[in-house]
Design brief:
The complex is a heterodimer of chains A (628) and B (861). With 628 residues, chain A is mainly α. Helix content of chain A is 74%, strand content 3%. Chain B is of the alpha/beta class and 861 residues long. Chain B has a six-stranded mixed beta sheet. Chain B is globular, with a radius of gyration of 29 Å. Classes of the chains: A mainly alpha (628), B alpha/beta (861).
Chain lengths: 628, 861
């Protein structure tokens, strides 16, 4: 059983690696994906069969411990219970269908290899999330799903709009990662070594007073809710899901119709003991679901495109699942999840049929040409049904058309203020910044040497500098190198501030910087190799299409981007966790600040990556100029 | 309204008096694509805007305006030269016709083979590098990304034909009024028009609003028109759709009142509002931008567009190489392949290139079958309302406006099945969101797992059966004969009178030169195409029927030609259809390679042994045809069996994951107008439109004018649409099908907030060799000169500016002449050029993956 668990985890990775190394022709890629998909399916099915034959046990398996220092542990931990079993079943079924579907659907498509690599990356992340035994593992899988989602939205990288929407989805993902990042940290803090999912329910069952204080648990529940809402496009993040339908139809179906959109529900199911202890948190969850259902079902009424309509219908159902969860109906949620996943997946796959269907089965349009809130009208008394004041009709329509204005709301609450501060920082000249920085550093060293002041107090100005660096990166449009350096600087300053707080953590911090510094250097190397004639200041909005003109360099930039943002391929991933762990052992606010900065850094770095690598090459055919 | 409108007086834009908005809109709309709602797909010249220029010049101008490529990359031509598809004599010919000075020819030859890795990048263009983009870069506002989603949502919801549950537009409400209503009469005003700077402008007439906004944004009337053009070229799909609906409101089933002027006004207002929000009230206008004067204007582009010489030569050389394959074959083929025996069956087909191979196989299998080609509406233009159809559709090329309406009725009264079919099988088509959805997903969702598995792993089963027009029930009846002259509500005549029928039948028979020697059985074969999960289905059907299957026309034709009263009138006019001759209608499904015979109850009355022979031959021919098509499908069967191939094409047409049910008109290249004897026995690789025409029956050239009036827009339109979609699929074409999202039943877009995509998706054109159509007419040049003079000026343009190539083939001597505006040029083919000979078509196609040169078929080879 343990080896089957590992097989479920490793086979998609194997598929990814094999396609990357050997997939030089469509036939080979198809064969590799066919066999790995079937092998994975076989291991999933045998795993489930064994699991059933053993009588549905809650099975935990610790493979090895990846990193251990002091009280901190990062074990590779798997966990299988009925929730993971149901999700695993859905993953197997939908993934097999999609791989088979794409074999023909993507035939001769330019990004055939890229597509299958990404989709296997997605399966890897998905299985990791579903089978994870601790919140750290779950976070790793969560990040992989996020990046593969980002890559598939931007699959048609020649066009500006998919790239923009990829960044939009990634931004929401990233923002909601704050929830999970801090959630992971809090779970260390609250439950110490017993942060395994397997222990959670036990923990809550046996200790009559909860294992942590109510406010702490409430905070943690809120963080989990943020993470779940973001991934599942719930209130107030509904807007990104329809706009993410930019990749090939089957990828939209598997991500936004079927699996990815239900990961928020999975997270909630997994962490149910944490948030279900109190009616207040349940009420919050219910409200999130309720608001989502209202806004999304209204927005769905005015979607004039078929994929957007399916997306909002799906969001509505996920909203229902949130409400069901608030009532503790977890079995119902599992059934509901399966139903919704299969239905939406199918709906998206056959969405191109809508024209034939509407014109040839339903004949023409038999709707009366005016606003007719039908579901609403049916419930109104006859006498006032047709006299719903026009102003209310219009209001309702505008509300639905603008999808509850959620995007504007989120933008004005979160992004615009950050951008404004960042822009102000960027107005200061670089030389001024450097001289201020150097002098501050000198003062710092002097203070430390002379031991005039406790090092903990110095963490505050360093943390401030970190925030400023992040914000500066966030709103910098003109110089990619400055963004890149500011991101690295912010990460290192985060390390510095933690070191000031906890000098004993130096080794962990060095470990963290072994992930950051090489990535930063690698990225700077790529940026220095960009054509000199590219005048970034003149065209801040141009996408430079390096993925086409220089695919190798852009791959390097991608890897260094992943490293810089702490994706689970470098030590920086565990380092991030460690940083938060150390910071929080001293001051909780510090951890929050660091997490926020990491998120902002991620967005800034992603933007640089997109601007450089995506888009249609902007080199102009010189031919037309000098052929007379 | 209590708030006074912002201070706009005529003084404010007095300097704009020189600017004529209506004229500007006229000029601009010229540049917009003219592709209608997706339910009918009418092929047309993608670059109609520059059709009044010579071909190469026009393409160069369009490239500079749209930012598109003009030709294939040089590397592609070089590869074709290496493979022997582009011949040296053709390069010489192209150079000789390029106007290149003889001293520079060696240098040009060298340049042709130079390696240039950047030549396929798009040129500096008005659409991407004009005054607007320059200004937005200066302002650092990504205006398109902010304004487009808002605008597209409004437009899509306003024009929506039935996807959204709530309809936005009210009866008799224009787009402008609708925006006003949502802004002024809503508690939650429409973003961004709620901005104080623009809110009150909505109450003014659009004309004034446009001028006000232009003055604020552009600042100098000299640039107004160019700004508007650039703004609209940032979303040509929607702009073109709005213009098309404005000019032809009937293009939509649910009519909407919209005009390009309203669109421009709304978009400018949105821009103004966003700019004010982003950059304050006093944002810099274009006139205030530094270096604004350095940006090229539209007039510069038109004058200075440069035709890249090497690519032009390559392209012409490729075309001439391919064209000469047919010309050589025409010369070397003697006319002796005419069937000796009198035909037992005559079959009429559409001119469509997809019927080219089917006709060849029929004749190969049974020399007693004679085939004819005519435009697939068979000369009968009418509106057709099928038994299940809620609205009538035009069954003729879109240049004709039908005056007659034909209804279909059921022979056997049937219980209304609609109530049942509404039920379980189609629940998935429209998402249900709220409580009903909650219940459905709980209960039925799991069922979709099974259904999905079934569709993906067992395609071809009937679970997802959406009935196509092409799959007509056999038990219906067309109401053809008019009983009285009362007009319907739409001013149409219900059915045809006998005289009108005789006119139509006579017209077609004379066109194709069949006025005597009728065989005992005449089969009228229309064509359609079935496909699954394909929003572009209309582009797969008959181009001569405005993207519908031609079945009703074939049925009407057979019925009329069988009618004794019609035959009586025809006899008086000299066309004697013997009593022993019968007409039968059929439909060839080009994707599944299946045939349906219509009105069985009618043809069962006649002796059917000939029909049985024909049906048997047809079945074999369809299998061979499927096999020939399969050579293009990389994932098709590798074994060489007709059964397997046929099974494959059927599966292909019914798989939900198959983006290429068939390859349609890919590689269309020739159009031969002449007797079948000219092309019978030629293997044309499904590349030729074939129209029957007998020069001997057309001494005055009236028939050829009629024929050319139909084939130039239909075949030429197909050819150029394929060509330009292939040359730059992201600008002229619709890009890849895979991410397409159906918007409002109007068209497809990328994602939920993209512009409508026009042109053809990449899956339809990827194997197309983009060359212009070669029309070979079997007629004397002198008569053709007279005929061309009678052509409509808009069609003459196609010939004079080389948008199609024309060759005249002398009916007796087979001498060939190229048409130029300046006169006829005798075609001189290299003496050593010969056409390869093969015994059977099957021998030619074995193992071939690309296009195959023209072959001669000789049974004694």
């Amino acid at each position: 059983m343990n080896s089957l668990l590992l097989a479920c985890q490793i086979l998609p990775l194997l598929g990814l690696v094999l396609i990357a190394l050997l997939g030089n022709s469509e036939k080979k890629i198809a064969a590799i994906s066919f066999w790995t998909t079937h092998a994975m399916g076989l291991s999933i099915i045998s795993l489930l069969v064994i699991w059933v034959s053993l009588g549905f046990p809650d099975h935990e398996y610790e493979w090895f411990t990846l990193y251990e220092r002091g009280s901190y542990q990062f074990p590779i931990l798997f966990y299988l219970d009925r929730i993971s079993a149901v999700y695993l079943f859905a993953v197997w079924l939908i993934f097999s269908v999609i791989v088979r579907y794409c074999r023909n659907y993507l035939h001769r498509e330019a990004g055939y290899k890229r597509f299958f690599m990404t989709i296997f990356g997605f399966a890897l992340g998905l299985n990791m999330v579903v089978l994870s035994g601790s919140i750290d593992m779950l976070f790793a899988g969560w990040e992989i799903v996020g990046i593969s989602s980002f890559l598939l939205i931007a699959f048609y990288r020649h066009r500006v709009q998919p790239v923009r929407n990829a960044l939009r989805a990634y931004t929401v993902y990233r923002f909601c990662d704050i929830g999970l990042l801090l959630g992971a940290w809090m779970s260390h803090l609250l439950f110490h070594e017993s942060d395994h999912f397997s222990n959670l329910s036990v923990l809550f069952e046996h200790s009559a007073p909860t294992p942590a204080s109510y406010p702490a648990l409430f905070l943690m529940s809120m963080l989990i809710f943020i993470a779940a809402s973001g991934k599942s496009a719930q209130f107030p993040f509904c807007f990104w899901l329809p706009r993410a339908m930019e990749g090939p139809t089957p990828s939209s179906a598997i991500f936004y119709g079927a699996l990815s959109v239900h990961l928020g529900v999975f997270l909630l199911l997994r962490t149910m003991p944490i948030w279900s202890y109190h009616y207040l948190t349940r009420t919050v969850l219910f409200l999130i679901g309720f608001l989502t259902v209202i806004i999304a079902s209204l927005a769905e009424k005015t979607q004039s495109n078929i994929k957007g309509q399916v997306a909002y219908a799906s969001i509505t159902q996920v909203g229902f699942m949130f409400m069901e969860l608030a009532f503790g109906l977890d079995m119902l949620v599992l059934v509901h999840f399966l139903g919704n996943a299969f239905l939406r997946c199918y709906q998206l796959l056959v969405s191109p049929s809508i024209v034939a269907h509407m014109l040839r089965i339903e004949g023409a349009i038999d709707r009366t040409p005016d606003v007719k809130p039908s579901s609403m009208q049916t419930y109104l008394p006859l006498s006032i049904r047709d006299t719903l004041p026009e102003v209310l009709q219009n209001t309702l329509y505008v509300f639905a058309l603008q999808e509850g204005n959620l995007e504007l709301l989120v933008r004005s609450m979160l992004w615009i203020p950050l951008k404004k501060i960042g822009a102000n920082i960027n107005r200061v000249r670089v030389s001024v910044k450097i001289s201020v920085g150097v002098s501050a550093l000198l003062v710092l060293i002097v203070l430390l040497k002379t031991a005039l002041i406790n090092s903990t107090y110095l963490a505050a100005p360093v943390a401030l500098a970190m925030v400023m660096a992040s914000l500066s990166a966030f709103s910098q449009k003109h110089s990619f190198r400055q963004v890149w350096s500011a991101v690295a600087l912010s990460a290192l300053l985060a390390g510095g501030s933690v070191w000031l707080l906890q000098p004993t953590a130096l080794q962990d911090l060095l470990f963290f910087s072994t992930g950051i510094i090489p990535s930063w250097l690698l990225g700077m190397l790529v940026l220095s190799k960009l054509p000199k004639k590219e005048n970034f200041i003149d065209s801040p909005f141009a996408y430079r299409g390096m993925a086409e003109t220089n695919p190798k360099l852009s791959l390097v930039l991608f890897i260094s981007f992943l490293g810089l943002v702490g994706f689970p391929i470098t030590p920086a991933f565990i380092g991030e966790d460690l940083l938060l762990y150390h910071a929080s052992s001293q001051y909780a606010w510090m951890a929050a600040l660091i997490a926020i900065c990491f998120v902002i850094n991620g967005i800034a770095a992603a933007r640089v990556f997109l601007r450089i690598c995506m888009g249609r090459p902007s080199e102009i055919s010189e031919l037309l100029k000098h052929t007379a | 309204m209590t708030v006074a409108p912002p201070k706009i007086s005529l003084d404010d834009y007095s300097d704009t008096q020189t600017f004529d908005l209506n004229a500007a809109i006229q000029h601009i709309s010229h540049w917009l694509p003219t592709q209608g709602p997706i339910k009918d797909f009418i092929h047309h010249n993608t670059l109609h805007a520059v059709q009044h220029h010579p071909f190469h010049k026009g393409v160069a101008i369009a490239a500079k305006v749209f930012g598109a490529r003009s030709y294939l990359p040089a590397a592609d031509y070089q590869a074709m030269h290496q493979q022997g598809r582009i011949k040296n004599f053709a390069i010489n010919w192209a150079i000789a016709h390029s106007g290149c000075a003889s001293a520079e020819i060696p240098a040009l030859w060298k340049k042709l083979f130079a390696v240039d890795s950047c030549d396929h990048y798009p040129p500096v263009s008005l659409a991407n590098h004009g005054i607007r983009n320059n200004w937005l870069t200066y302002l650092e506002v990504d205006l398109n990304s902010l304004a487009h989603p808002l605008l597209f949502r409004l437009l899509a919801n306003f024009l929506d034909q039935g996807i959204s549950h709530w309809t936005l537009s009210k009866a008799d409400e224009s787009f402008w009024e609708c925006v006003w209503r949502l802004t002024h009469n809503s508690l939650l005003p429409l973003y961004p028009f709620n901005d104080a700077s623009v809110r009150d402008l909505l109450s003014l007439p659009t004309h004034d609003v446009i001028l006000f906004c232009l003055q604020r944004i552009v600042g100098s009337p000299a640039w107004y028109e160019q700004y508007l053009l650039e703004m609209l070229l940032a979303h040509p799909g929607w702009a073109g759709m709005v213009r098309l609906i404005e000019l032809d409101p009937n293009a939509l089933l649910e009519h909407r009142q919209i005009s390009l002027e309203q669109l421009i006004a709304v978009e400018l207002l949105a821009e103004l509002a966003i700019l004010t929000k982003k950059r304050g009230v006093n944002f810099v206008s274009i006139a205030q931008t530094p270096h604004a004067n350095d940006i090229a204007l539209l007039s510069d582009y038109e004058d200075k567009a440069i035709v890249p010489l090497t690519l032009k030569v390559w392209h012409e050389a490729m075309e001439y190489s391919l064209h000469s394959e047919l010309l050589i074959a025409l010369k070397s083929q003697n006319g002796s392949t005419k069937p000796k025996e009198t035909p037992i069956v005559q079959a009429f087909f559409c001119i469509d290139d997809r019927e080219c191979s089917l006709r060849r196989y029929l004749e190969e299998l049974n020399p007693a079958i004679e085939t004819f080609g005519a435009a697939g509406f068979f000369g009968i233009d009418f509106l057709y309302q099928g038994f299940d159809d809620a609205y009538p559709v035009a069954q003729c090329p879109n240049i004709l406006t039908p005056k007659h309406l034909i209804m279909e009725s059921n022979l056997q009264p049937e219980i209304d099945k609609n109530a049942v079919s509404e039920g379980l099988s189609d629940l998935h088509i429209k998402p249900h969101s709220l409580f009903r959805g909650w219940l459905f997903t709980q209960i039925l969702g799991l069922g979709y797992a099974v259904r999905m598995l079934w569709d993906v792993f067992r395609p071809g089963s009937q679970l997802l059966s959406i009935k196509k027009l092409s799959e007509v029930d056999a038990h219906t009846h067309l109401h053809l004969l008019r009983e009285n002259d009362e007009l319907t509500a739409d001013g149409k005549l219900l059915g045809f009178s006998l005289t009108e029928m005789a006119d139509k039948i006579e017209g077609l028979l004379r066109n194709i030169g069949l006025t005597k020697d009728f065989a005992p059985l005449v089969v009228v074969v229309a064509h359609g195409s079935s496909s699954t999960n394909n929003p572009h289905f209309a582009a797969y059907d008959c181009g001569a029927c405005s993207g519908k299957p031609g079945a009703p026309n074939a049925r009407a034709f057979a019925w009329m030609a069988n009618h004794e009263g019609v035959r009586e009138i025809l006899r008086e006019r000299g066309i004697d259809i013997p009593v022993s001759s019968h007409f039968v209608a059929a439909l060839h499904n080009t994707s599944r390679d299946e045939i349906t015979y219509f009105d069985k109850h009618l043809y069962e009355q006649y002796p059917t042994d000939v029909l049985q022979i024909f049906q048997k031959t047809m079945q074999d021919a369809l299998q061979k045809n499927a096999l020939e098509r399969c050579r293009w499908f990389e994932l098709g069967p590798t074994a060489h069996s007709g059964d397997e191939a046929h099974e494959h094409v059927v599966t292909r047409a019914s798989s939900i994951f198959e983006p290429r049910p068939e390859l349609n008109h890919s590689n269309n290249l020739y159009c031969v107008v002449g007797r079948r004897a000219l092309t019978r026995g030629l293997f044309l690789d499904r590349r030729s439109f074939l129209h029957s025409y007998d020069a001997a029956t057309d001494p005055e050239g009236q028939l050829i004018v009629k024929i050319l009036s139909a084939i130039i827009p239909v075949c030429g339109g197909i050819n150029l649409e394929y060509m330009f979609s292939r040359i730059d699929n992201s600008i002229y074409g619709a890009g890849t099908k895979l991410p397409h999202n159906v918007i409002g039943l109007l068209g497809v877009a990328n994602g939920v907030e993209g512009d409508l995509r026009t042109g053809l998706p990449s899956q339809m054109i990827e194997v197309h060799e983009p060359s212009r159509l070669l029309i070979v007419i079997e007629q004397k040049t002198a008569l053709l000169d007279k005929a061309f003079a009678k052509l409509d000026a808009a069609l003459k343009e196609w010939l004079d500016h080389d948008w199609v190539r024309v060759v005249a083939c002398h009916p007796d001597t087979r001498e060939l002449f190229f048409y130029h505006r300046t006169g006829w040029e005798a075609v001189e083919l290299p003496l050593d050029a010969i056409t390869p000979i093969a015994r059977h078509s099957e021998h030619i196609i074995v193992g071939q993956q690309a296009t195959i040169p023209v072959h001669l078929l000789r049974s004694n080879a």
